[in-house]
Amino acid sequence: MRLESRDSRPLALVILYPVISLFLAGLFCGFLVMLSGASPLSVFGLIAKGAAGSQFALFETLTRATPLIFTGLAAAVAFRAKLWNIGGEAQLYAGAVMTAVLGTGLLPLPSAVLIPLLIVMAMLAGALVLSVPTFLKTRFGVDEVVTTLLLNFIMILFVSMLLEGVLKDPSGMGWPQSKKVISEAVLPRLIEGKRLHFGFVIAVAAAFAVWVIDRKSALGYEMRAVGFNPKAANFAGIPVNRVLAKTALLSGGLAALAGFSEVAGLKGNLTLDLSPGFGYTGIVVAMLALLHPLGVVAAAIFVAAVFVGADAMSRSAGVPSYIAQVMVAASLLSMVTAVMLTRYRLRWR
Amino acid sequence: MEAVEIIFTASLWAAAIRIASPLIFATLGELICERAGVLNLGIEGIMTVGAFSGWLTVYVGGDLWLGVAVAAATGALFGLLHAILVVPLGLSQHVTGIGITLLATSLSYYTYRLVLPEVTSPPKIEPFQSWSVPFLSDIPVIGEALFRQTPLTYLAFACVALVAWFLYRTPMGLAVRTVGENPMAVEAQGIDVNRIRIGAVMAGSALMGVGGSFLTLSAFNSFFFEMINGRGWICIALVVFGSWRPGKALLGAVLFGAFDAYQLRLQQLAGGVVPYQLFLMLPFIMSIIALIVMSRRAAYPRALMVPYRKGER
Amino acid sequence: MPAVLRLSGITKRFGALLANDNISLSLGRGEIVGLLGENGAGKTTLMNILFGHYLADEGSIEVNGKPLAPGSPRDSLLAGIGMVHQHFTLADNLSVLDNIILGTEPFFSLSSDRRAARARIAKLGEDFGLAINPDAVVANLSVGERQRVEILKALYRDAKILILDEPTAVLTPQESTALFDTLRRFAERGLSIIFISHKLGEILAACSRVAVLRSGKLVAERDVAGATRNELAEIMVGRPVAPTKTELQTPGAVVLSLDGLSVRRGTQQLDGISLQLRGGQVIGVAGVSGNGQNLLADVISGLVQPHAGSMSMNGNRLGAVSPASAIANGVARIPEDRHAEGLIGDMSVTENVISEAYRTPRFSRRGLIDWAKARRFATQIIDDYAVKCPGPEAQVRLLSGGNMQKLILGRVMANAPSVVLANQPTRGLDVGAVNYVHEQLLAARRRGAAILLISEDLEELLSLSDEVCVMYRGQMSAPLSRADTTISELGLMMAGHGFEHREARHAS
Question: Is C482 a residue whose pLDDT tops 90?
Fold first, then answer.
């Protein structure tokens, strides 16, 4: 078996293959659902209903998509430059810690000042966390995949330490959680009485900003050049290490915004279960979006829908909600395969 | 007991070997994959599925060794999936590896919940018991540390020798080493590059599966979520630390185990003065430091992460 | 003479390209047949089909009268076909012994008999005059020694038919002559040899019969005795060949001057290189690959900082170098490897032509790139340099080698550079593209640019350069004027004659 590069990529193929691949991933999950004794069709129906069947469900899905847009953008930006940032989880928590430190009363400022300040500081915290592995990569040649992964574990332990120490809420009845952020730091709800908050708007705006950087700016050009061929980029005079450092700042900052928006927009305080793996899921989101910033928004909503829908389905049909994670992982693998097959043709001999 | 005295106790080293055992299996597994030129970031998930499937086999009435075999087989199965995607199809080894980890982990959890929908505390099984090697276990300190372990630990040590011998002394091992250096050289000798790589990834993944099963069948007696807890990523660091050599990888794993056992004891000694999380962080920080130290002189396989496309120049 | 190998009606298509068109060829026992053709004529494709790397669309192969299973390198090896690839298929970090015995023992055997292998390698080395230390690591061997390992690999497998793909590309002329002697010795012992080359002189020197390929077709097959160079050249190219002519031109002022440059990187080094490049002058650099030419190119390109010595441009001493500073100083750099360094294959033509200038006001303002301007620039290069491509948005990786090189020329020549550094600028190009590159270099010379041409093709060097230097183990000879130097003289210098052996760091 061998692959042959395609000279052209017909649009039909580019659309058809991903669709088929997602269908196959769905088929695989349908088989898993059958193992539980439930009917796949009704389970998928319940998932769809739970994700988009009501106004409540729809808002819930968008709320869940918000952090995924941020972590998805973080992964997309980094992966474009082939900076393998698998540490979205750590950067998310860095942003969340910064929000909890500064937003719980330390800075008594009006909303119009405090929220932008928190955004900047949270982004800085996340950028700093990713800068360490990036520095180790460019200076010592240490593979950033492993270091960013290991940092995730270090960070969560660090957060746990803070929540049982300096950041512990005295009135939290012993739970490891921080105080609530002050009302000036809370992101406004988009619609009264719903959980969907202003963080979603920031996330979509961030996606547009990344898109502009990618298409129009010299930095976006540099990041793509470095990602495709660092040797040629260096030869042409593009400062590869500096570009990677800038990429790290942007990517880490975006992931940190997920932590900021969850604390300031949704949860109100920092807890150890703030993120059920948003950092890792962001990688899937980015890949499903083929690393396109605007595609990230769509992919994040899709993935969020699967999770929200599966939760609702699990409550009513009794199929374990872990089916959502399986579905997302299977979609990732089938999607990257499909994309490969749009670029290459499979030859059996 | 003083902090320094602990280092010389047999119980510390016995614990070190115990902690190292799953890492030895999985590190060897990753080493074989990388020697063949394939980075396997599926390791964390493959260890999870190994831990789960091994446990499940015993839980439903299978023999302990059958559990180990099943763990190896499921590991190899996920290895096969990873290999098909990254070897003949040439997909990004990073992204695919993460995908395999997510898939293997979520499948384990899903199946666990399918089998046991309502339990809150995970059911226990009867794990491997430690087995004292006659005579050898009577040697002071060394005997207690090395020769009163469970059979799986002895198997781990045997695997080090086996893998080293395989890589350096057999024709197939030579092919594996060459394919990670220059696949063209293998192709030019009429050997199928893809087959060697797929085989190596499957064998390596089987070892990762066994490493995972050590946790459920030997170290603990049940399966719970998040039980691999980054051990897979640490093994990837250990491969670099061991310069892609089985013997050095063993040394790294045992050192790591000793360090981990030591920090556990230090933690008790510190008695809550120092936050326990700091101690728990140490293994991860150590891994990063080891990577920095070793990366300067790492002679990694030249074709690592480079997909080979037949007939492409 | 009985035919040991017979190719009949071989046809191979790559997409729209007809790489081999109904080719039939036979090889007798003890015969050396030259396979002559330009780059891209289909020689390597044909041999890869014979060796089983590629699968022919039509046609069949017989070895000793028995049909050969298509598409299986294993079967080709078992049938006694051995191939010495142009790009060596060796694992650099393994020993010579490991490289040679790979794949020769039963695959599932639980041990390997290294003692027997060692003895056999020693015996082969003795028999054929190819001695080598079996425990040496390949990475530490010279190119010539690596080629010896490749040939030993084939002999170790009892090859009766030996295919050598451009074997002299990395050798000095004297080493090439020695190789021809070795090949004749092989032929006397009954081996049959196919010698692939695009160099006429070598075909005439080494072979008894020659087959000429052009655009995938076998256009001629004849005995070498009686054939002349010009005749073969015309058959190969398909039209009369006019050699590139250079006019006399008085050199101008010194533009770039290198003064005692020294640097070390891996096994390569520069050892006190001094050189002055004048405007309107071409200086050629000859040398066996790996003697520091690439390091010299990298220093001038700004990729590597010299440890000692200095560079000055127009009399001004340069400080720390970088690719950006080299570009700013007006150095046009044509890199050795178009794919790895010159261009970014996954990006468009437009994106590639601005890569050295995207930060200048010409293409960007306040960090935003003016893509309309960039596209106009790309279109202009496509027109001016006759680049064959669908348009400025086409992906570069889909372009042919010649068109890639034209893009690079367009990019670097845009600002009328004062220095042109061309490292192997015509490697792998067909004759048309080679002539085009030569013309562009000579046009830059006419404009008054100083040109440094690094090449392993001595004929190219001698036809373009005003003066030629030879590099050997990081040292550089004094410039020799073209008028009073010969290929064999250069060859001796490439082998180290005339260089003082200051140190014996190289074990090889």
Answer: no
